[in-house]
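Hi everyone, sorry if this is the wrong subforum. Our group has a chain we'd like a structural model of before ordering constructs, and none of us has done structure prediction before. Sequence below.
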Amino acid sequence: MLAFLSFVEAVAALKRGEIIFYPTETSYAIGGDAADSQTAAKIMLLKGRAVNKTLPAIVSSPAMALRYAVFSKLANRLARTYWPGALTLVLPVASKLSGTLSHGVLREESLVPSGMPGAVIAETAQAPYGDAEGSPAKFIALRVSSHPVARKLAEKLERPLISTSANPSGLPPYFDPEKIAAARWPSHIKIAGILSGGVLPKNEPSTILKVVGEFAEVVRKGAVAFKGGHF
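Answer:
Right subforum, don't worry. Here is the predicted structure as tokens:
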């Protein structure tokens, strides 16, 4: 069985590049340092996640998010409205800092969300994160968690904290830390342990919203609902 960790032990494990389980406002998550490529790769293996998918991360505050991502007026408004909370924003990476993040948390996608009117393509091309001709740009998925433990972990780590649900891909998430401890996990991947937040309420996963300029699209429906495409 996996060991239970104190908060201090969990932070120390993260700083050593190790993997932990920890509570969030949606479910228990698998976490690690988002700047550590080896940690991200191990979490991918642990999840059984497809190599073309990437890992979202939790930041301690909007100020930390601004160090890593480009925020448009729309992204700023969404962050002010829904953070801390279960809204993950997929945002263009701040170009000067993209090298400080693991490839496991960076995704390459078309700069232009589906449905973006052609009239704004030229304006978007002036942004510092790529061109608007449909060529790939680097993005990162971030949120400020409303769970105080998750937020404090990111604060003490001083970098984004990988946050993907604590379950193999395709299986239900965990809400009970005792069930995580009793589960069988691959023996060849070291897991430092579990930072318990008790049994969590069964909430929906975070909504994932891609935002480029003043346009957005829902990547995954979840706890935050947007009606009629109004953001």
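For your construct planning: The longest strand covers residues 136-144. Residues 114 and 204 are 25 Å apart (CA to CA).
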